[in-house]
Amino acid sequence: MSHTNYPMTMAYYQRLRSSRLPQDLKSRTASNLLKLKKQLKKDIPQKNLDEHLLLATWNIRDLGKSGPKHGKRTLEDLFYIAEIISNFDLVAVQEVNDLEDWEFIMKILGRDWDYIATDVSEWADGGNGERMTFVFDKRKVWFKNIAGEIVLSRTNLITEEVEMREDTPVPQGRQFARTPFLVSFQSGWFNFDLCTVHIYFGKETGPKLKRRIKEINGIAKELSDRSKISLKEKDSMILLGDFNIVHPDHQTMQALTKHDFIIPKPLERPSNLNNDKYYDQIAIKAKDSSIITFTESEEEGKPNAGVFEMFDSIMRSSDWKDYKDLMRKTKDGKKCVTDADFKKYFKTWKTYHLSDHKPLWVRIPIDESERYIKSIV
């Protein structure tokens, strides 16, 4: 088996060159892509063919929604999103809405990439018409033909309200606002179940916060129960996505960890743009605990898990002038008068063109050939 690194094979640069972007925008996009590639190479271990799986989760804010308030995503935005995704092997993406932008991202990624998505969630119950999506490099990851949305049994429904029937309180249960999506994958020797979520947010306090906590507890308990059977055949059960967790010491996190899911230490960092919330998580149960140590790579001296700080290289606070003309065309941008107004608005605007969440990632060993041969000896 080859241990060489492998590049992204796609018509990436040809697409950029042949796009209808004006030359000045092509130049800016290309320049920023070089900065982004440099940061990705520095911060994230390089992809290899058969030794490690680079797994990520990323909530891409309102992907596919378009409107006058902040403007539709541009080709420039989609190139940046594709570049980030391409540096991983498998990415769980939340908040995919209309598929037009998503399909263009897939065209940029090229023939080696594929995806699996759910249908849209219900608007009326807090789902906002979103899809759960897995995108993966087919050279490294293969779909094991098992996929499904998690539906809770009648006895495990998320109770929120109590209805009185003949003077007797009867709890009223509900399913998840956005149904978690569970898929079986394999990469090298590593055979695993992967579940992505986007937990209901609600409010900071009160009954709607309680509903959020119950959703987290509900999916963690459901998968923990399932893992008692699945880990007899699979190597790991991985639960990841946007949990809307407030802080590692908050009840929202306790609802996840009390079911014995392990959160890698390097991921105990804020994942939102303001660096004050721990919304996104990757939680793991594994047959072999060695895959969740996530110490630094001996070969590269890089971490094996982390949060990618994408705004360190592109759409930095100091870049606001480059996007002033685009901001002027939006509903909210038309309210800006002074440079100070545009500079302040840029912090919000860019979250609708890239995201307000940062990608979280882990690197998992997938080559068990040596251990297997030793077992024969």
Short descriptors:
five-stranded mixed β-sheet; Deoxyribonuclease I, Chain A; 377 residues; 9 helices; alpha+beta
Question: Can you tell me about this structure?
Answer:
By secondary structure, the chain is of the alpha+beta class. It has one domain (12-315, 353-376): 4-Layer Sandwich (Deoxyribonuclease I, Chain A), CATH 3.60.10. It is built from 9 helices and 13 strands. A 6-stranded mixed β-sheet has the order 3-4-2-1-13-12, with helices on one face. It has a 5-stranded mixed β-sheet with strand order 5-8-9-10-11, with helices on one face. Helix 2 (23-43) runs parallel beside helix 3 and helix 3 crosses helix 4 (99-109).
In short:
With 377 residues, the chain is an alpha+beta fold. The chain has helices at residues 12-18, 23-43, 75-86, 99-109, 206-230, 251-257, 324-328, 339-349, 369-376; strands at residues 52-63, 90-96, 113-117, 131-137, 142-149, 158-165, 168-174, 181-187, 190-198, 236-242, 280-286, 305-307, 360-365. It has a 6-stranded mixed sheet with strand order 3-4-2-1-13-12, covered by helices on one side.
